[in-house]
Write a structure and sequence with these properties.
Elements (H helix, E strand, L loop, with lengths): L2 H24 L5 H22 L8 H25 L5 H8 L2 H12 L5 H20 L3 H6 L5 H26 L2 H23 L10 H26 L4 H6 L4 H12 L6 H27 L1
Helix pairs in contact: 1-4, 1-10, 1-12, 2-3, 2-9, 2-10, 3-8, 3-9, 4-8, 4-12, 5-8, 5-13, 6-13
C-alpha cells in the first residue's frame, strides 16, 4: 500500500472525527449557520487554490450547473444544517457513532431505488447496526427504549444526515466517473456554500462575527482549513492509489477519534454502553459492506 496515500486517508479521517468536537466548541459562541458559512467559505478558497494548481479549474455548463447545484444543496447546505443544528443538543461522540451508519443507508437505498438485492446477510447487518444506534442514542437506558423516549432532538437530526449523505453519495457516483474529483468537489462546495448565504444572513449574519473569541475562531479555522479543505483533497487523492473498500475501512477510526477528543476537550464520558453500541454499529456496517465486496469480487 502507498504510504503517502495511507497518511492522507488517515489524516482525513482523524480531522473528520475531530470535526464534531470543533463544531461543539464553536457552537458555544455562534449560531450554526455562521459556523457553516465561514467554514465552507474557507474550504472553497482552499479547494480553488488546489484546483488552480492542478489545472482543474473549469466553469460548469448550464446542464452541469443543475446537477452540481442539487449535490451542493444535499451534501453541503442541508447536510451541514442537520449536523450543526443536531450538535446543539447531541453529544459529539454519539453523533460520530451515528454517522458511521451511512453505508447501511446506501445499501437500503440501493435496494429501494436500484433494485439491488439485499440478501439475509445484509439484512442481518442492518439489524445489528440498528441495535447499535439504539443503544448509543439511549446510552443504555433500556426503560427509555421501551417507552420510546430516548435520544435528543439533535440525535435524530444527526441520524437524518446519514441517509441524506447516502443519497448524496449515490447521486455523486455518476459525476465522479466523468469529472476530476477536485473540480467536481469545488463546484459542489461552492454552490452549497452560496446556498447557505441566505440562511446565514436570515439568522444572525455578520452581526455576531465580531464577537467570536479566539477559541471559536480556532475551531472554525480548523473546520474550514482541515475538515472542508485538505481532508477532502487528501481523501480523493488516496482513492486514486488505494481501493475504495480499503479507503472506506479507515472510516471506522472516525468515531474512535471523536470519542477520545471529546473526552479530552468536552469532558464527555466514554460509556461502556456507547462503546458496545458503537461496536455493534461497526459490526453491522462491516457485514453490509462485506457482502458488497464479495459480490464485486465474484463479478
Amino acid at each position: 500500500m502507498n504510504l503517502i496515500a495511507i497518511f492522507k486517508v488517515t489524516f482525513a479521517v482523524v480531522v473528520w472525527g475531530a470535526s464534531f468536537i470543533a463544531t461543539k466548541i464553536a457552537l458555544r459562541e455562534v449560531a450554526p449557520m455562521t459556523i457553516i458559512w465561514i467554514r465552507f467559505g474557507i474550504g472553497v478558497a482552499i479547494l480553488a487554490a488546489f484546483a488552480a494548481k492542478r489545472q482543474e479549474l473549469a466553469v460548469p455548463s448550464v446542464r452541469e450547473l443543475g446537477y452540481f447545484s442539487f449535490l451542493g444543496f444535499l451534501g453541503i447546505t442541508f447536510h451541514q444544517w442537520l449536523q450543526a443544528n443536531g450538535l446543539l443538543t447531541a453529544q459529539a461522540t454519539t453523533s460520530a457513532w451515528i454517522i458511521t451508519t451511512t453505508p447501511v443507508f446506501i445499501a437500503i437505498l440501493g435496494w429501494l431505488v436500484l433494485n439491488e438485492r439485499l440478501g439475509w446477510n445484509r439484512v442481518s447487518g442492518i439489524v445489528v447496526a440498528t441495535m447499535g444506534v439504539l443503544l448509543v442514542v439511549s446510552r443504555g437506558d433500556w426503560h427509555s427504549l421501551a417507552n420510546g423516549s430516548f435520544g435528543t432532538r439533535g440525535d435524530f437530526l444527526v441520524l437524518l444526515s446519514s441517509p441524506n449523505w447516502a443519497v448524496f453519495s449515490i447521486i455523486s457516483r455518476k459525476g465522479l466517473k466523468k469529472y476530476p474529483a477536485t473540480q467536481m468537489m469545488l463546484s459542489v462546495m461552492t454552490l452549497g456554500w452560496l446556498f447557505t448565504t441566505p440562511l446565514f444572513l436570515a439568522e444572525k449574519g455578520f452581526s455576531e462575527i465580531g464577537r467570536i473569541a479566539f477559541s471559536g475562531w480556532m475551531s472554525i479555522a480548523f473546520l474550514g482549513v482541515f475538515c472542508s479543505g485538505f481532508a477532502y483533497i487528501f481523501w480523493y487523492d488516496a482513492l486514486k492509489s488505494i481501493a475504495a473498500s480499503q479507503v472506506g475501512a479507515f472510516l471506522y477510526l472516525e468515531p474512535l477519534v471523536a470519542a477520545v477528543v471529546a473526552a479530552l476537550l468536552l469532558d464527555e464520558k466514554i460509556l461502556a454502553t456507547s462503546l458496545f453500541g458503537g461496536a455493534l454499529i461497526l459490526l453491522g456496517v462491516w457485514i453490509v459492506n462485506r457482502q458488497s465486496e464479495v459480490k464485486a469480487s465474484v463479478e
